[in-house]
Amino acid sequence: MIVEDLAKKVAGKDVSIVFTEGWDPRVMGAAVRLKKGNVVRPILLGEHEQVNACATENGFDITGIEVIAPSEYPDIDKMAVRMVELRRGRLDMEAARQALTQTNYFGTMLVEMGKADGLLGGATYSTADTVRPALQLVKTAPGQSLVSSAFLMEKGDDHCLMGDCAINRDPNPDELVEIAIQTAATARAFGIEPKVALLSYSSFGSATGHCVAKMSEAAIRLKRMPLDFDVDGEMQFDCAVSPEVAALKAPESKVAGHANTFIFPNLSSGNIGYKIAARLGGWEAIGPVLQGLNAPINDLSRGANEEEIYKMAVVTAAQKALGI
To answer: pTM score, two decimals?
Structure first.
């Protein structure tokens, strides 16, 4: 499995990952496993009494795992000053100190100031509450204008990428182009040679509509670029994955019938699509992996279990250690 291979590659590299909900038993169980396997160096955020109570109640041995309570952090004033600088007049010291009582902002500042290599949150926070501090403080990577997401989907020896399923509600053609390029890069980082399909309810002009038009325009723009991967669209999902259907609808396409990287037209279709694949199709969804940020910061589904948190921590560490 891809994540198991990544775990072996990052083990022993001392990559530190901040967990914004260190008091959550799912998070703590994953952190204990990561520490025991020397995969990453976990940092649990939360008040000491709350974290210790969770460990006692659930029988976790957190010896050797760093626990940081924002209320007791000795450099909180220095952190607040830096936060005010980053927000460029949008908040004062009092507002910064108040924000830093929340572990999502505090943890993001640990990453921004180089005190941790990456962050994983969302076990109790919403996606917006994980992504917002990252956008405000860590910001996008050089050359990137937006943050998107992708899910790594696994079923036996089969793998594919789906994006954007968590961040951008209704991307325009320019944004779809960037999402496609980001997701293709993520696929390649996972060892998957991307064949990118821009999905719609139409295959190469068989139907019309706003959604069809923007996916077609994004495909045209991508094909004009000097890319080192195959991309095509707009196309229906069956055309993207079935060689038989592709032979009828797009016989000349290098992608149709063989796609492994799927770009959805909007957040609604992307979120529904990956969850149908997971719940009815038996695919495991690993993600969302955030793309385009200037540091490894990832979000969790609030329904994530310990195993899913473990895997996302591995992916987050790999983004730092292996440049994913």
So the answer is: 0.92
